[in-house]
Structures are given as structure tokens and as C-alpha cells.
Amino acid sequence: MARKLKSDRMLFAATVLLVGLSIVMVYSASAVVGLERFGKPSMFLIRQGMWVLLGMAMLYVVMQIDYHYYREPAIIWTGLACAVLALIAVFFGAPVNGARRWFGLGGIGVQPSEFAKLVAIFFIAAVLERRMHRIDEATYALLPIGLLVLGLVALILPEPDFGTSMTLVLIAAVMVFAAGLNYRYVVGVALASLPVLYVVVMGSAYRRRRTLAFLNPWDDPRGDGFQIIQSLIAVGTGGVWGRGLMNGVQKLFYLPEPHTDFIYSVISEELGLIGATAVLLCFCVVTWRGLRVALRAPDTFGAFLALGLTTMVAVQALVNISVVLGLMPTKGIPLPFVSAGGSSLLINLVGMGILLNVSQHASSFEA
Known about the structure:
Elements: H1 9-38, H2 43-63, H3 73-89, E1 103-105, E2 108-110, H4 112-131, H5 138-156, H6 162-178, H7 183-202, H8 205-215, H9 226-237, H10 263-296, H11 300-324, H12 342-366
Antiparallel strand pairs: 1-2
Helix pairs in contact: 1-2, 1-10, 2-12, 3-4, 4-5, 4-6, 4-11, 4-12, 5-6, 6-11, 9-10, 10-11, 10-12, 11-12
């Protein structure tokens, strides 16, 4: 039996710190927006608070469930069926900001692509547990994983959601490479994917504009380069100690949706280099402890499950922070645990609950 008091405390503490920061920074970043749109500055704070309570409750519940439960075929296939149906359902809903990524469920917007990432990790971990001894045999080990990932990407990409699609691909790639796949296959697939990636990016008008704006945002400072420029201004004016909580300027209708994708810009401006670095360190701790859990897991499924969940958070954090700092083209990927939004927060907290359960078993295994 797993000893529940042996959950990774550093992992749990880093997660709670990020969630606590979310409450503070979402209010700071959204108060003026909430007042302008709804006449209520606490509108987004209340929403985020409700999602935090639900997410932390889910984390606690999931932390008590033996992670081996997630390799049961009934759980995996039911989850995949629900994810696919939900991904199809979004195309019948009304677009939000030009995208169809959500559908209403009891008056709440749900983003099924977040759930799809979690279920995909279950599937890949279960397949690798059984077939990693023949990982270099494409039809035996890689084909089912490839079909699943490509199938989900085919549903997520047209929403459009390029960022989540690439995140899913990266998660699968990390898990497969960790299973011992020969690096020549990885290099070969990467090279073969370059033309496809070029067509996907340059074949879409808005992706092409974002890429060109990333290369030189000052070519169109009032158009496609506006987000990157305003984000860099926010980061640069924060200095070492920041302007002070609630005293940021760029969130005042300069940064689009400052409480979601660009909340790290607000953190950098108001809390300065010290605050931004503290957030980055929290994500480093989550990644380090997650990889440690994967290395110490008592079985192969637990190891791949922990690796996939850790990669899910680490990749999203890396991409979001890179976008804010102008190191990558703009993508609609939130900062895990911190950005406003229910689906991402809930799924990431559920993932942390599963990871903490694996850490319990790892502790028991060490003893």
C-alpha cells in the first residue's frame, strides 16, 4: 500500500504557491477589464476562485486514487471516446474570438483539448509499458501512438489551436524518446516534419502573420506586432523590484487579455525580476520533482505517466514564458496554474494529483 503521507511535499508546495499567485495576479491583471466589460472589478477573481476551489478539491481526491487505475482499458477508451466526441462538438458551437475551442456545459465553457492531452498521456503510458521492449518496431510500438496523436491533432488544429496541437506532439515525442527510441528515428521524423510544419504555419494567414511579427514586430507595431511589443515593454519596465502590485500600466488595455496568456508580463511588470524569477523557479521545482518521481516510480507505467504529466506542465510553461519574452511566436497557451481559465487549471491540477499519487508509491517502493 502507498503511504499517503509520503507525497512529494516540494512538488505540492510549488503547485500551491503557483495557484495562490494566480488568485492575486488574476485580480490585479483583470480588475480594470472586469470593470470595463461587466461593471464589476472582481468578476474574473470570483471565477478564478471557484475554479481554484474545484481544482484543489479534485487534486485532493485524485491524489487518493491508485494511479494503476488509469491503465485500465475501460478507463482509457472511455476517456478517449469522450474526448473525441467533445472535440467534435466544439465545431457546432459559436466561435469565441474567431476560434471554436470551447462548448457550453451547464453555463460553463469547457475546452476539451485540455482533457484530450490527459487521456493521451494515459494511453501512451499504457502502450509503452507493454511494448517498449520493441520500441524501434514502428508498426508494433509506434503506430498506435502515432495514430492516436495524429487523430487528436487533426481535431484540435482546425479549431484553430496550433499551440495545443504542438504541445500534444511534444509530450508524445518526449515519452517515446524516453522509452529508448533510437535517436536516428527522432532525427528522421523531425526532418520529415519540417515541410509539413512549414505548410501548416505558412498556409494559414494568421499563423503566417504571427510568425512574421515574431521575426520583426516593429514592422507592424500597431497590428500583428502589437502584443509582443507591449509584452516586452511590460517586462522591461518592471526592473528588478517591479512597479508594485496593482500598479502595472500595460494591463490597462495595452496587453490583450492580460489575465490569461500574458499574465507573466503583468507579473514581470508589477513584481519585477524578483517575482518573475520566483515564478520560474516554482516551475523548475515542479519539473525537477516530477522527473524525480518518474525516475523513482515502482513500475514502467508509473514512470511514463509521471514523465508525461511533468512534460505537459513544463512544455506549456516554457512556451508561455517564451512567447511573453519574445522568444517564440504568439500562441494561445496559458501559463499553467497561474493564467485565468478553468479547463487548463482543472486539468493541470488533476495531473498534479495523479503525479502526487505516483510519488506516494515511489516513497513506499524506496522503503
